[in-house]
Each structure stands twice: as C-alpha cells, then as structure tokens.
Design goal:
The structure holds 3 protein chains of 3 kinds.
Chain A (H helix, E strand, L loop, with lengths): L3 H6 L1 H19 L3 H11 L1 H13 L4 E3 L4 E3 L1 H28 L3 H19 L4 H19 L6 H32 L4 H10 L5 H17 L8 H8 L2 H25 L8 H23 L4 H27 L3 H36 L10 H4 L1 H15 L5 H15 L3 H27 L12 H19 L1 H21 L1
Antiparallel strand pairs in A: 1-2
Helix pairs in contact in A: 2-3, 2-4, 2-6, 3-5, 4-5, 5-6, 5-12, 5-15, 5-20, 5-21, 6-7, 6-12, 7-8, 7-12, 8-10, 8-11, 10-12, 10-13, 11-12, 11-14, 12-14, 12-15, 13-14, 13-19, 14-15, 14-18, 14-19, 15-17, 15-18, 15-20, 15-21, 17-19, 17-20, 18-19
Chain B lengths: L1 H23 L3 H21 L3 H26 L15 H22 L5 H16 L3 H12 L1 H22 L4
Chain C lengths: L7 H38 L15 H11 L10 H18 L29 H10 L1 H11 L3 H32 L4 H11 L3 H4 L1 H14 L11 H4 L9 H26 L13 H25 L5 H29 L5 H26 L53
Chain lengths: ~500, ~180, ~425
C-alpha cells in the first residue's frame, strides 16, 4: 500500500518544505537578508530538479498514498508555474522587505509554505486533501497581508482576508460535504465513478457544485465573490499583493478545474453548472474591466485587472465543460488554453507587479499620476513594465495576445460564441486602462527630472519577467505541446476505466 | 426507531436554537456560551450515530480547548461593556442577509427532500464503512485506521498547516521593535 | 414487585441510576471528610492540633461546617451577572461528578473478567473511558471562568483567567502523559486498562515512570492545588475567582475542587497502580478490591495534602514556563520512548521504557536542581555542609540546632529566637 517510491512522487513538495524549514532555522541565526534570499533561491533548484525529472520520466498519471496524491501532466504543469512564482517572489520582494518589513525570514518561510500548499492543491485527487492544501496555501497569505505592522491598512487587510477566507472555506466545505453525502467517498475518482451512474435531475449535485464554485470563487476573486480583492490588494505589502494575485488565483483554478473535470462533475447534470459558471464569468469580465478603468490607485487597478483576468480563464473553463460530454479531446483544448493563459498571466502579472513595486518604491506613491513621465527617469523599468501591461491587455506582439486568442478560439469552437463576444468587448475596455498607464509613463511631463536607479534585484526580476514573456511569445507551440497532454491527462484516468 | 426520531428532533431543535443564539445575543459572552452549547449538542448527535470517539473528541477539542480560549479572550476584552456597540453601517444589510439565508435554507431543504438520490455506489461506500467499524472492533480503532492509513496524506499536511499557523501567530504576536 | 427488572433495558437504566446515586453520595461524603482530614493532617505537619472539638476527634466537624454554610446568607453582589453567577458553581460540581462515571472502583462481582453484571462497581464501561474523563474535566474550567467573570470583580476575573490559562496549558501535558499508558494497554476503556495490567503482570508505573511523574505534576496543576493554586493566590488576588462567593455557592466550588482531586487520584491509581488489583489478592473476594482501590486513592489524596503543607506557591511566569517548556517536551519524549518500545519490543520489553523513563526523570531532577542553583533560587548545601539560603530570602527567625547556636553567627540574618524553638522558617 505504502511504498518508499511514493515519496518520490511527493519529492518536490517535500524538498520545498525542507527548504522552508532550513530558511526558518537560518533566520534564527543570521538576520542578513542576502543569506536568507540566496538560500531560498538556490534551494529552489532541488524541487525544480525533481519536477523536471518527473516530467521527463512520467508519461501517464501516477497515484500514490491511497490515490490521494495524483501526479500527472496537469499537476506537473502547475508545479512548474508555482515554482516560477516562488523564484520570482524571492527576487521581487528582496528590496521591499529590507525597506518596509522587519520580518524578512518569516516572509520567505511563509511564502515557501504557501507555495507548497499550492503545489499540493494541484496534485491531490481527494477532497479533504484539497481542502487542507487550500488552507496551507491561505494561512501564510493571511499572515503576509498583515506584515506591515505599522500600517493600519495592512492590519485591516489581514483581518478582512482571514474572515472572508474562513467564510469561503466554510462554503467550500459545505459543498464538499454534500458531494461526500451524495457519493459516499471523498476520492475524486470514486466521485467520478458515482457520477457515471447519476441520471439527470439530481438537484443536490447542482447545489454542491454551486457551493464549491462559490468557495473557490473567493480564491480566484470571481464576481460576486470579489469584494475582498481591492481592499486587500491595496492594504497588503506590495510583494504580498503580487503573490496573492498570481499564486492564490492559479492554485484556486488548479483545484477548481481538478474537481470539475477530473472529479467528473460534467458527467452529471451539466446545463445548470454551465449557466452558473457562465454568468459568473460574464459578471467577472464586465465588473473587473469597467471598475479597473476608473481606479486612480495602481494597486486597486491591478486588483480589478486581476479580477478581469479571472473572467477570461472562466470563459475557458465554461467552454471545456460545454463540450466535455461529447468530445474529450476537443474539450481538453479549452483546458490547454486555460493552462497557457494562466502561465502567461503569472509571468506577466509578476513582471507588472515588480515594475510597480520598483516604480512606487522610487517615486514614493501608488497613485497612477505618480508615474508621470517615468520614461525620462527610468527607461528600462518603464519599457519592461509597459510590455507586461501590453501583454495583460492582449496587444499582438506579446504572449498575452496569444493566450487570449487561444482561449477565445477554443471557446468559440466549443460552442460558446456569446461568451467570446462579451470577453472581446471587455478586452477592448481593458486596453483603455492599461493604455492609460503607459500613456502617463511615456507622454506626460515628469514631476522631477532626476534619474531613478532601481535596486539590482528588482531590475533583475522585471528584466527576467519581460525576457520570459518574450521567450514565451517565441515558444508558444512548445508550451502548448506541454499544455495539451496536461489537459488531456485530466480526462485520461476516466477514459482508462 | 421512534426513540431515535424523537431524540433527533429534540436535539436538532436545541442545536439550531443555540446556534441562532450565537448570532442573536448582544453580549459576546452569552454568544460564546451559546456556541459551547451548540458544540455539546453536536457531540450528542455523534453519540446518537454511535460514534463515541468522535463525540468525546468533539467535547475535548471544541468545548474543552478552543472555546475556553474564546472565552478567555472575550472575558478579558469585553468585560467592561455589556453590549457590543456595533454600528450598523448599512441598514438594509441585515434584512437582505436574513432573506438570502432563508432562501438558501428553503432551496436546500427543497432539494434535499426532492432531489437527493442515493445510488448503488453510495450505498456500497456506506456499507464498507460499517464493515470497517466491525473489522476493527470499535470506532476508535476504525477511526485510527482511517486517519493513519487511508487519510495519512492530509493528516501529515495538517501538521504543516499547524506549523504555518504557529509561525503566523508568532509574526503577529511579536512586539514591534 | 421487581418484575420490571426482567426487561434488560429497564434494568440497565435502573442499575445505572442507583449506582450513580450511590457514587454521588460516596463522593460527597468523601469530600466532607477530606476537608476534615486535610485540616488535621496539615495541622499535624505544622505542629498544631487542628479541629478536634466537634465530636470524637473532631469527626462531626464536617457536619458543623455544612450546617454553618447552609444557613449563611445567599448573597448576589450588585455588580454580578446574576444568572451566570448562580450557574457557575453548579457547572463546576456537575462536571466534576460526571467525570467519575467511568472509573472502575472494584473488580466484577463475579471476579471474572468475562462475566459482566449490571451491578458491577462502575457506572459505565465505555470504550473511550479515559477520553471521557479528559474531555469532561476539560469542561471544569468553565465553572471557574464564568464564576470569575460574572462576579464583576477584577480580582475574580484575573483569578479566573489565570486558572483558564493554567488549566489549558497543563491539560496538554496531562493528556500526553496518559497516552503512554494507552499505547501499552491498546485501549481507552478504564476497565480494560486494569485488566491489561493484570495480563502483563506489572503496574504501568513500572513501564511509565516518566509518564506518571508528568501526570502527577500536571494533575496537581489541573485541580488548582498547592503549589499550583495560583488562581486563588491570596497575596495577589484576594481569593481569586472565589472572592465574591460565600456560603453554599462557595462550598460548591470547594466541593468541585475536592471531587476533581479524588478523580485524578482515582485515575492515577487505575492507570499507573493497577486500579483495584493487588497481586492477585483480590481474585477471590471482589469486595476486597474496592477496599484496595480506596487505599490507593487515599494514598494519592494524602500526597496532595502533603504537597500543600510542604511546598511554597510557585510564581506565575515560572508555572507557565514549566508547563510549556519542561513538562510538554518531556511528555512528548515519553511518547517517543514508549512508542519505540511498544513497536519494536512488545509486552516483554516493558522494562526498557521503564528504565529509560526513570533515567529521564533522574536527569531532569538534576538539571532542574542545577538550574535552580545557577539562578540563585535553590538551596545549595554542598560546600560547607550547612544550609545556605538564596539571596532572595531574608529570615526573621530561623530554627537552628541548639548545640550549634553559640558558635554559629556566620549567617547574616540569624537572630536568636527567644520563644520560637520549634517555629518554622518564616519568609518575609
């Protein structure tokens, strides 16, 4: 039942936990930030190595620990994404920590533990494990939101985050409990088997689905569960905000898609599920984009922008569910587009956020007007940030364009043309507010003339992010080649039986 | 059978009543006491389901440990004021919230009584659970086998969760400079 | 007339009610006489006489006390929350009485573990008996916290909060200390634990010395007895949570405290000292097993009184530090030792965990003593052979050997006591 080789499947997470513990111990002995950051960054090589080794050697899904641990292409894809986040976060937060936060070691430890939780969320196939991993992801986020001890806004953000997070967890658990009550098992494979035998019209399934979607809706900040995002994004330390906007969201989608697709919910009553998710997607798109357009604080704007981005991802999910009963291979193209979109979103958002961290650090303000004329004062940062914003808007040369195209074409082909049209209109709105920042940075007159020199770690981060973005643009097909089997692997275990 | 139904109804009414008390009382300590009662009634539910171990652990952990800390904090902080002076910022909020809650309850109960179907697989899962209890002689052993065998993975992750929670509490609890 | 007893369910209920009533009577009587015994024993230790006027040897003293308490005025302070104020002592007593329900106070009447009768000397043999005791006694803190809060008095509130913190802290060590026994017994049922000790041929004190030491220390703290009676430290908090209580309600709290004391003593004898068993002596005569159990419990009760008369009260921060930094890690260590022995050796190798546990106890004693000497809070009579007092203690009078008096004036604060030849050390 339990073999030592099972631990190898878990090796990336275990090594990451060890890394976090090592950092925690080092933090006891030295307060030098450079040591802690270096150890964290170098230590990340081990889990990355394990993930690469697994990606190369494993072709099909493996399960271990009583089918609770599922290592397939899908979870490997997400593990890569989360490790990228971890590496970027170590770099991007380095300067900010020294300047504003006294608890540097704790920040890294919390961040690493949270990443462990995210990786587990993507690689479990069982409801209780998903819930525990979700909490392991969220707890550090709550603490990170309140790390600015002197700021009341930060404390308020932490408190709001804890309360709403607990609330959403409760709703999620309610959904899980209903699923368990219906099927008698918490194993997603077992649930999928049970759903094969359910006929249409089992209304409890819909209730369970809705509750689960509501629970994850908080994590991915989908409308109407988005209220927390702007306040918390604004109050929390900016690196933590960057982490929330990519990590929590990607992990939420990883688990949601795992439950909806791998858990075989599409085998039961599908129409209401699609209607609910579709309405959520449309609301998210509209509200996210239009609210972002009227913000003056850049962190609030990025909050609404990340809400809007969740809307695009939801479009892909809805499209997949529409088709999954008829044609698995076609349906999986929707998931593949979603995976690609999430990867691009993570890299872009991290880049944009490190640009914002750097620029607001240098200018000392978080209002959009504080960014006036930065082109004349810090050209490299301005160009990189603008590229990331362009990618978020989906302007052609950059990867963000492709990711949107893939989602829209997939959704169109899978039979959701209306969603695509709404999403297209919304992305036109998005060009307005992303463009406004770029315009302010390039064409407005600067307040002061002196040059701004960004700290080395931040300029490295943003350069790396932009470089990664450009590389992604070039190797689109390679990434898609990885995303397609990842998406298919969600269906594989069901088809195998 | 009738005894079971009667005791269930009595317990259910008591539990819901105390649970409503938690949110209805103005005094925080009365709310906490009401919550303790709710948790004790839940333990009785477990007892009714023959789950002795869970029932006792429910009392030990929730009523005996967690709520003591709640009461600890509440008595220390709210000992002076009798009623929490909460400003009701949005006047219609409470009404809309209550209405939505009622709708949820109505929808859930409607669906529960009309929509739920127990399929063959569900029944077999429940059967295997009963089997496990008889195999391991007593619910404590069955619970232990489930926790340390089948659910080993989330159990171990929980320990990480606790480490993180302690770390977070430390970060917040530490005096600034 | 007793036809209804033919129905097994009815018979069980009747038997349980009767046994429960009997047990309550026994516990309350024990409480009443415990107060007398405690006062007499403490008086003996302190060289006084103690209450000896009411009846022969003062035997009617509890009756007199009870009468006095009953006729005292039942006051409710004007600043108190009346409902909870009245309820709190009741919670304390009810919880204390409930916890005793699963303790087997004697062997089965048939003296055969296989044959059960509804009249066997325990109220219920549930398969989570030990957890039942732990969980119910964890509720006892509510009586104190609510009593302290509802009194509307700062002293009461502070005493109650102290007690809550103390009980929660020591509960963890207490529970962990018992889990070593569970590993050996493989059961949570109190009855089964006694029988397992009979099967193995040892008392678990032999296999679990460390667990026993931790349990006893934690238990003293759990029932708020000296030297851990911080919640009612009179120098600091008047009478702690009891400040505003008087008369019957006050004696209800006292009753709860003594019943809790009896319960932890009973658990200690059952878990570590073979319960009602005594090397097969009780096999033939079940009634003898009850007597033996009572003797064992009485020993622990005497230990509690002895401790109270001997040890000074520990300071609050030290109490918490001791609980979290010494007891809890030791309890975890005990679990590790026991788990390794049980998993690798089995029943025959109980002595390994016994020796290891004893070793840890001895090492810890030395370590704590050394720590005390280093911090200057401990006697160190190693150098000269005569007692050296810590700097923090000033003496008003100090008892000395008469023959040493004339040539001994090195101790700075020794004065010649004209009267107090037999007086104890008085600390200022």
């Amino acid at each position: 039942m339990f073999q030592l080789s099972d631990l190898y499947l878990l090796a990336p997470e275990i090594s990451l936990v060890l890394l976090a513990l090592v950092v925690m111990v080092i933090d006891l002995f030295t307060k030098r930030r450079i040591v802690i950051a270096t150890v964290s960054l170098v230590g990340l090589i081990v889990p990355v190595g394990f993930v690469i080794a697994q990606a190369v050697t494993y072709t099909g899904p493996r399960t271990a620990l009583f089918r609770m641990l599922v290592v397939d292409q899908y979870s490997l894809f997400f593990r890569v994404i989360f490790l990228i986040i971890a590496a970027f976060m170590v770099l991007a937060s380095y300067n900010y920590l020294g300047k504003y936060i006294k608890a540097e070691g704790e920040f890294y430890v919390l961040m690493l533990f949270s990443v462990v939780g995210m990786m587990l969320m993507a690689s479990t196939g069982e409801l209780i494990s998903i819930y525990i991993a979700l909490e392991l992801t969220s707890f550090p986020l709550y603490a990170m939101a309140g790390l600015l001890r002197s700021s009341t806004k930060s404390s308020e953000a932490a408190l709001k985050y804890v309360l709403l997070g607990a609330m959403s967890s409760a709703i999620l658990l309610y959904g899980f409990a209903l699923l368990y009550g219906l099927t008698g098992t918490t194993d997603l494979q077992g649930i999928a088997q049970s759903f094969k035998s359910f006929g249409n019209g089992n209304l409890m399934v819909i209730v369970a689905d809705v509750l689960i979607i509501a629970g994850f809706g908080f994590k991915i900040s989908a409308v109407p569960f988005h209220m927390w995002a702007p306040d918390i994004y604004e109050g929390a330390p900016t690196p933590a905000t960057a982490f929330f906007s990519v990590g929590s969201k990607a992990a939420g989608f990883a688990a949601l898609i795992r439950i909806l697709v791998y858990g075989g919910l599409w085998q039961a009553d599908l129409t209401p599920l699609i209607v609910v998710l579709g309405v959520v997607a449309v609301l998210t798109l509209i509200l996210g984009n239009f609210a972002a357009a009227v913000q003056t604080n850049i962190k609030r704007m990025m909050a609404y922008s990340s809400i809007a981005q969740a809307g695009y991802i939801l479009v892909g999910v809805v499209a997949t569910l529409t088709m999954s009963q008829k044609n698995h291979t076609a349906a999986s193209s929707g998931i593949a587009a979603v995976l690609f979109f999430i990867l691009v979103y993570v890299v872009t958002n991290l880049g944009a956020f490190s640009g914002i961290i750097a620029l607001s650090n240098l200018t000392g303000g978080e209002k959009i007007e504080d960014f006036r004329g930065l082109w004349h004062r810090s050209p490299l940062l301005t160009v990189c940030t603008s590229l990331c914003l362009l990618s978020l808007a989906g302007i052609p040369p950059v990867a963000g364009f492709f990711s949107k195209v893939f989602i829209f074409t997939a959704a169109w082909q899978l039979g959701q043309p209306w969603l695509v049209i709404i999403a297209l209109l919304c992305s036109i709105v998005s060009i307005v507010y992303y463009g406004r920042i770029i315009k302010v940075m390039f064409f407005d007159a600067p307040r002061k003339e002196e040059r701004l020199v960004a700290p080395i770690s931040l300029s490295t981060t943003i350069t790396l992010a932009t470089a990664a973005l450009l590389v992604l643009t070039v190797i689109v097909t390679v990434v898609l080649d990885a995303a397609n089997p990842a998406a298919l692997s969600l269906f594989a275990s069901l088809l195998g039986k | 059978m009738t005894f079971e139904i009667v005791s269930f109804v009595v317990l259910a009414v008591a539990t819901v009543a105390t649970a409503i008390g938690v949110i209805a009382f103005k005094n925080a300590i009365h709310s906490a006491l009401s919550l303790i009662l709710t948790l004790l009634f839940l333990a009785l539910f477990y007892l009714q389901l023959q789950a002795m171990f869970i029932a006792v652990v429910q009392i030990l952990i929730y009523a005996g440990a967690i709520m003591v800390l709640f009461l600890f904090v509440v008595t220390m902080l709210a000992s002076d004021q009798d009623e929490l002076a909460l400003r009701n910022q949005i006047p219609w909020q409470r009404m809309v919230g209550g209405l939505l809650g009622l709708i949820l309850v109505a929808a859930l109960s409607y669906l529960l009584f009309t929509g739920a179907q127990v399929t063959g697989t569900t029944a077999s899962h429940a059967e295997s659970l009963k089997q496990a209890i008889t195999t391991y002689q007593g619910d404590t052993q069955a619970f232990g086998m489930a926790l340390f065998h089948g659910f080993l993975f989330p159990f171990e992750v929980t320990s990480l969760l606790i480490v993180v929670a302690i770390l977070g509490a430390l970060v917040f609890g530490r005096r600034t400079n | 007339m007793f036809d209804f007893m033919n129905n097994p369910t009815v018979a069980l209920i009747v038997a349980t009610v009767v046994k429960g009533a009997l047990l309550i009577v026994i516990l309350l009587t024990a409480f009443a006489y415990m107060t007398l015994i405690e006062r007499r024993v403490v008086a003996k230790i302190q060289g006084r006489l103690g209450p000896n006027r009411a009846g022969p040897m003062g035997l009617f003293q509890p009756v007199a006390d009870a009468l006095k308490m009953m006729f005292k005025e039942q006051m409710i302070p004007s600043q108190a929350r009346a409902g909870i104020y009245v309820l709190a002592p009741v919670i304390s007593v009810v919880v204390a009485l409930c916890a005793f329900a699963v303790v087997p106070i004697g062997n089965n009447w048939s003296a055969n573990s296989g044959v059960h009768s509804i009249w066997d000397p325990f109220i219920g043999d549930i398969n989570v008996g030990l957890l039942w005791i732990l969980s119910i006694s964890s509720l006892s803190v509510y009586g104190i916290v609510l009593g302290g809060w509802s009194s509307g008095n700062r002293y009461s509130l502070l005493g109650a909060l102290r007690s809550a913190a103390q009980m929660v802290s020591y509960e963890t060590s207490l529970g962990l200390a018992l889990s070593g026994v569970l590993m050996w017994a493989g059961s949570l049922s109190m009855v089964t634990i006694v029988h397992r000790q009979l099967d193995m041929g040892i008392w678990y004190i032999c296999a679990q010395p460390l667990g026993f030491v931790i349990y006893i220390i934690a238990a003293v703290a759990e029932v708020n007895r000296a030297p851990f009676d911080l919640p009612e430290a009179e120098q600091e908090l008047t009478a702690g949570y009891l400040t505003e209580y008087a008369g019957l309600r006050w004696s209800l709290f006292q009753m709860a405290e003594y019943i809790n004391m009896i319960t932890v003593s009973a658990v200690a004898s059952t878990l570590f000292f073979g319960g009602w068993s005594l090397f097969g002596l009780t096999d033939g005569i079940p009634i003898l097993s009850i007597v033996i159990f009572m003797i064992k419990v009485a020993f622990f009760l005497f230990l509690f009184i002895w401790l109270r008369a001997t040890l000074p009260r520990i300071r609050y921060d030290r109490l918490m530090r001791f609980g979290w930094q010494v007891l809890l890690p030791l309890a975890a260590l005990n679990i590790v030792i026991t788990a390794c022995t049980v998993a690798l050796g089995g029943d025959r190798f109980w002595w390994i965990s016994g020796v290891a546990g004893l070793l840890v106890v001895v090492v810890m004693l030395f370590a704590i003593r050394r720590q005390g000497i280093l911090e200057g809070t401990h006697f160190s009579e190693v150098e000269t052979g005569k007692p050296v007092l810590p700097h923090s203690v000033r003496l008003v009078t100090y008892e000395q050997e008469p023959e040493l008096e004339q040539d001994e004036d090195s101790a700075p604060s020794v004065s010649q006591p004209p009267l107090a030849r037999n007086s104890n050390t008085v600390q200022v």
